């Protein structure tokens, strides 16, 4: 009787020991997971894309047309890339510059303190009447859309849309012995330090001088085309209200035309394989339309 009781007791103990182990195997109790398996289970799982590939590519800002106001307002306080044609440029008396797009409430502002970063020319001088792409944080200022321009890397030309045809050649009207007037009212009068008339001086910029020290801006086309391009640049500067750089009795415009107007000549141009130029530099007597010189730059 005592022997049977002892055997029953030992069986009960074995059952009590075995049952939790069996139960953990059935239900997956974490207490039954080995230390190695536990360590593997706690490793983070990388995010994957639609095809199961690990996605490490940075997200690009959304691209929106400058005249799509509805979509732009959905993207407030986000980085965006805006595309469109700069219709107007302005320079404030405090030195800030503004770019406005065709049929758009969006304004791009470059504060005076940021202009020093633009070594190749200020935004107002470079991008008037140009198709551009600009990337930056979209904000509201006085209820209107605005992007602040801090660095040249934020803005670039949309080259595919910037090409236009050059103007037809023009004839200057002689109004005195060595004085000529263009269709845009530009006056070419007087002589340069070498004794050339202003017309002869500018005509030298229609052909390269490969041995000339430094750089030499050369117009594409003949003399008639060169003077037509100068007229075009002057009218564009007036339309966009580009503020000239004043140096006493001389002032200058640097006008981007959005297409090739010539190339870089001289020794510097030769070393660089004569790269194309898209801007026209015009020097004139302050407060007048009397042209001193003009050439691609």
Question: What distinguishing features does this structure have?
Answer:
297 residues; 2 domains; five-stranded mixed β-barrel; 7 helices
Model description:
The protein has 297 residues and is of the alpha+beta class. The protein folds into two domains: 63-161, Nucleic acid-binding proteins (OB fold (Dihydrolipoamide Acetyltransferase, E2P)), CATH 2.40.50; 173-296, no CATH class. The chain is 24% helix and 29% strand. It is built from seven helices and 17 strands. It has helices spanning 2-27, 35-41, 69-74, 123-126, 198-203, 223-239, 266-271; strands spanning 63-65, 79-91, 97-101, 107-110, 131-141, 144-148, 155-157, 173-176, 179-181, 187-188, 216-219, 245-247, 250-256, 262-265, 276-277, 279-285, 291-296. The strands form four sheets. A five-stranded mixed β-barrel has the order 2-3-4-6-5. Strands 12-13-16-17 form a four-stranded antiparallel β-sheet. A three-stranded antiparallel β-sheet has the order 8-9-10, with no helix packed on it. A hairpin with a 5-residue loop joins strand 3 and strand 4 (107-110). The longest helix has 26 residues, at 2-27. The radius of gyration is 36 Å and the shape is elongated. The relative contact order is 0.10.
